[in-house]
């Protein structure tokens, strides 16, 4: 906008003053604010866009301007020219004021070839005077994949709906067949009027006016191809009518790229997303998008592999699994480039931004509130740079190990696949997963790109706590659940208290494992679980008493087991059998295996005590056996001798007894 001219005298003002032009850009936000009363001119604008049944698009813009700059003595201010910006594809541009057609000149915009200027001339507009100008033109639309942003074709119309003027004095109305689906950057009021739907908005943007990209589509006129994903679900690829180039590009890239995406993320395609839709709205508003509510991905008409795979990646990297805009955008970008590199495709990484440049900020502060602002021009490439730095030395297998655990919501301090301590992944959990699952030191990248000074202090505390955590030797066991939870939650004050209490307990846990290894026995599962599932100071105190007892019992059971298994003299073996030492030892081992430490210890002590009596018991049994055998063998002999000495007497007393008989 130019400043108004002054003239020395009313009669000659129009000759002495150069023509003034209030040129306001219709397509795209202007670099200068609109005129207002403080600048000498007020504006009231109402724009109406009508989409016809056959795809024709017309615009009607009514603007009322008023000169509010008072005359100053012999000088006065006036306007003789007013203009608006129109799309380069606009045709039949007309301007009417007071029923009279105004002369309209169309000139190219040197700064932006996709826009033209439409200027209408009129007699000088003096202080206090108003003029209403009614503009009308047809938007023919530009070819697909051309620089101009408007698109008009069968079943679709894409354009920027806008009205320039003072706040409270602007409005936009879009009239379209009710069968067309609307996508807009601004929430619009909607009203059904017969076979048409009317959309309205008066939302004021940046002290400038109403500005919103509009995309209208007839889904029935889209050309749809189903792409099977893993033989389970089908992804609908919807292209603009007649755009076979984009359709073939998208189908081929999805068919070849989806298996790579699934492998890199370590998870199959989330079936909630059902549609990939070509639209020219991204060309207007500057970005494609993933619509989790509408279960669709919307990408532009450009044959852009990075954007396609980036938006497909949002099917995984999105709430609720991931929180933090930078983390979602950075991971989708890194996954897209790794997919392209694997396939040998085309796509350049974003230039790395200046960390201290304009609009730079810690990525934790980058949010949806910055959408469509200049901060986005920093946030997107900075997010990509941050994640690229995290995985700079990581191969695809390492990348997958970290990302798959993050997508599953796992804690870095749990075993892979564990259900314990799962949750949405924020920057803290992701940093820990990079360290624990990937062996990656990502702290430097986080300090550079992600955190502010407050979170940097948290990183210092984290480093100290993790050093203590690593120094606490649990052997083959996991740290107790309470400590794992505190580390997962970054409750480092509580974690350090727990580690102080666990220092002697961990030593006892290690002693249990050493005792079991030396004995060739398995540690009772209940003992291990008791340690790994402990979560309070009371639990830790109980373990400090229980674990030494477990280690001692394992040693006792091992000792008596070895004693029973050893080769011994027959007398001792006999004693062991009679005392049932092997049975008692087996019972002790059984009690140990089920975690009954007290019973196992008692039985092991009993077995050991009996083993001490085995030799004496065996000897006693042998002696007793000899005595019994002697009695068994000696008794018949003694009886025989007695009979031999008594025969004569018997014979004398009983004739014929004991004498030989003739039995012949």
Automatic annotation (TrEMBL):
It comes from the Bacteria. Keywords: Membrane, Signal, Transmembrane, Transmembrane helix. The chain crosses the membrane at residues 613-638. Residues 1-37 form the signal peptide. The keyword Lipid biosynthesis does not apply. Coiled coil: none annotated. Residues 338-359 have a biased composition (Basic and acidic residues). This is M1 family metallopeptidase. It comes from Ruania alkalisoli.
């Amino acid at each position: 906008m130019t400043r108004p001219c002054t003239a020395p005298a009313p009669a000659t003002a129009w000759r002495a003053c150069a023509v003034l032009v209030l040129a306001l850009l219709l397509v795209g936000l202007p670099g200068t604010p609109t005129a207002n009363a403080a600048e000498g001119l007020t504006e009231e604008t109402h724009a109406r866009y009508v989409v016809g049944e056959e795809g024709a698009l017309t615009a009607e813009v009514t603007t009322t301007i008023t000169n509010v700059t008072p005359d100053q003595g012999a000088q006065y201010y006036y306007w003789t020219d007013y203009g608006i910006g129109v799309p380069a594809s606009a045709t039949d541009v007309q301007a009417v004021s007071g029923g009279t057609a105004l002369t309209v000149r169309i000139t190219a915009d040197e700064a932006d070839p996709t826009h033209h200027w439409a200027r209408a001339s009129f007699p000088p507009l003096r202080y206090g005077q108003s003029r209403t100008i009614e503009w009308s033109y047809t938007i023919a639309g530009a070819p697909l994949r051309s620089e101009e942003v408007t698109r008009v074709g069968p079943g679709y119309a894409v354009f920027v709906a806008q009205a320039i003027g003072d706040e409270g004095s602007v409005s936009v109305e879009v009239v379209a067949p009710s069968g067309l689906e609307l996508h807009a950057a601004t929430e619009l009021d909607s009203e059904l009027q017969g076979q048409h739907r009317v959309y309205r908005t008066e939302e004021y943007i940046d002290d400038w006016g109403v500005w919103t990209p509009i995309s209208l589509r007839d889904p029935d006129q889209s050309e749809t191809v189903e792409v099977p994903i893993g033989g389970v679900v089908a992804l609908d690829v919807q292209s603009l009518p007649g755009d076979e180039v984009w359709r073939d590009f998208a189908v081929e890239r999805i068919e070849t790229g989806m298996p790579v995406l699934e492998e890199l993320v370590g998870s199959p395609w989330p079936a909630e997303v059902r549609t990939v839709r070509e639209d020219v709205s991204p060309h207007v508003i500057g970005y494609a998008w993933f619509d989790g509510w509408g279960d669709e991905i919307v990408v532009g008409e450009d044959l852009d592999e990075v954007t396609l795979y980036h938006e497909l990646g949002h099917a995984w990297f999105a709430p609720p699994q991931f929180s933090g805009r930078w983390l979602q955008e950075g991971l989708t970008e890194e996954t897209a480039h790794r997919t392209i590199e694997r396939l040998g495709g085309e796509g350049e990484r974003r230039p790395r931004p200046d960390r201290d440049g304009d609009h730079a900020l810690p990525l934790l502060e980058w949010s949806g509130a910055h959408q469509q602002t200049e901060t986005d021009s920093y946030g997107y490439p900075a997010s990509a740079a941050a994640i690229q730095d995290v995985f700079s030395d990581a191969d695809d297998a390492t990348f997958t190990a970290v990302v798959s655990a993050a997508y599953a919501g796992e804690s870095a301090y749990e075993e892979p696949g564990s259900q314990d301590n799962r949750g949405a992944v924020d920057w803290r959990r992701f940093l820990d997963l990079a360290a624990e699952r990937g062996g990656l030191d990502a702290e430097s990248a986080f300090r550079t790109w992600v955190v502010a000074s407050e979170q940097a202090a948290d990183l210092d505390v984290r480093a100290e706590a993790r050093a203590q955590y690593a120094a606490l030797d649990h052997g083959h066991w996991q740290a107790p659940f309470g400590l794992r939870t505190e580390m997962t939650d970054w409750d480092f004050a509580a974690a350090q208290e727990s580690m102080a209490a666990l220092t002697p307990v961990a030593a006892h846990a290690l002693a249990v494992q050493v005792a079991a290894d030396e004995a060739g026995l398995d540690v009772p599962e209940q003992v291990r679980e008791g340690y790994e599932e402990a979560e309070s100071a009371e639990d830790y105190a109980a373990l400090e008493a229980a674990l030494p007892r477990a280690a001692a019992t394992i040693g006792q059971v091992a000792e008596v087991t070895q004693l029973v298994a050893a080769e011994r003299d027959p007398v001792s073996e006999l004693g062991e059998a009679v005392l049932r030492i092997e049975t008692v030892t087996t019972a002790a081992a059984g009690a140990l295996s089920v975690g009954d430490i007290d019973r196992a210890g008692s039985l092991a002590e009993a077995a050991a005590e009996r083993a001490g009596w085995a030799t004496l018991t065996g000897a006693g049994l042998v002696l007793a056996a000899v005595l019994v055998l002697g009695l068994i063998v000696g008794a018949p002999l003694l009886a025989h001798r007695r009979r031999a000495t008594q025969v004569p007497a018997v014979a004398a007393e009983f004739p014929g007894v004991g004498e030989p008989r003739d039995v012949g």
